[in-house]
Design a protein that fits this description.
Blueprint lengths: L3 E5 L3 E6 L2 E6 L10 H16 L5 E6 L4 E3 L4 H4 L5 H4 L1 H15 L4 E5 L2 E3 L1 H7 L3 E5 L3 E3 L15 H17 L3 E2 H6 L5 E3 L4 H12 L4 H16 L2 H15 L3 H11 L10
Parallel strand pairs: 3-4, 4-6, 5-7, 6-8, 7-9, 8-11
Antiparallel strand pairs: 1-2, 2-3, 9-10
Helix pairs in contact: 1-4, 9-10
Length: 266
């Protein structure tokens, strides 16, 4: 039975729609410009969802079709007057985006409209990006004399150094088709098909094991953050440990017995 629980916070709406946890960015008047409240609320909600065994997939979306997020709220970045205190802003940005990458559940980012600056950094910190064909992606920081930092660094891995340079140094926006062609997004659909496409991905992902999701995301994080030899060695050791879990034994037995696996998330 589907259990729906909803909690409206200051900047997001958190919804449990078993087996999906949904986070809706909810600052439509600011085009979901990112501030400290939004960052902290996303981070805390991800932690809550990860503790809930009924949740298998997380979806992050906007409540407005004008933008996923237009970037960092200018009021947010201009608040501290002391340089040292200003460090708290990128530190919290990194903390929240790292929470996305290390969360033990797969995260789908549904983008409709503008996905810019820190909003793009949030999106690429998720596991999948599904976008509408009217979406725009970019790093407009350069236009106001600010370099792109923090999780913009992931763009080099996502789209290569030439694509990252293009976005960071020109401030130009990519349309959804170019973003898909360059490997920034997974799928592009018409706006009216966004929810249906997200649901198709949800239906696929909910067939699998939370335990294996956690293991695979941990391995992928090592692929991104360590050298090749270390990442491969870590992967081998982690998989050997994973063989001791119920779900891996069940998955292998189901394959050999030609039946559907019944994962228990343990």
């Amino acid at each position: 039975m589907v259990v729906k629980e909803e909690k409206k916070l200051k900047t997001i709406i958190a919804q449990k729609d078993t087996p999906v946890g949904r986070i809706f960015l909810n600052r439509p008047e600011k085009l979901n410009a990112i501030n400290m409240d939004l960052l902290v609320e996303i981070e805390e909600t991800l932690k809550e969802f990860q503790k809930d065994d009924e949740i298998k997939v997380i979806v992050i979306k906007s409540t407005t079709d004008k933008a996923f997020s237009a970037g960092t709220d200018i009021d947010f970045v201009s608040l501290p007057t002391e340089v040292w205190k200003q460090r708290e802003i990128p530190k919290q940005l990194h903390k929240t985006f790292l929470a996305c990458r290390t969360c033990e559940r797969p995260i789908i980012c549904a983008v409709d409209g503008y996905c810019l600056g820190a909003g793009l950094e949030l999106a690429i910190s998720c596991d999948f990006i599904i976008a509408t064909n009217r979406s725009k992606f970019g790093l407009p920081n350069i236009k106001v004399g600010i370099p792109a930092i923090v999780e913009a660094a992931i763009l080099v891995q996502a789209i290569g150094i030439m694509g990252a340079r293009e976005l960071a140094l020109t401030g130009k926006f990519w349309d959804a088709e170019k973003a898909e062609r360059r490997g920034l997004v997974n799928v592009v659909v018409p706006p009216e098909e966004l929810d249906n496409e997200v649901q198709r991905w949800v239906d696929t992902l909910t067939r699998y094991s939370n335990t294996v999701f956690a293991t695979q995301k941990d391995i992928i994080h090592k692929w991104m953050t360590t050298d090749l030899d270390t990442a491969i060695d870590y992967s081998i050791n982690t998989v050997l440990i994973n063989f001791t879990t119920f779900d891996t034994r069940e998955g292998m037995a189901a394959f050999l017995e030609k039946r559907k696996a019944e994962f228990k998330d343990k």
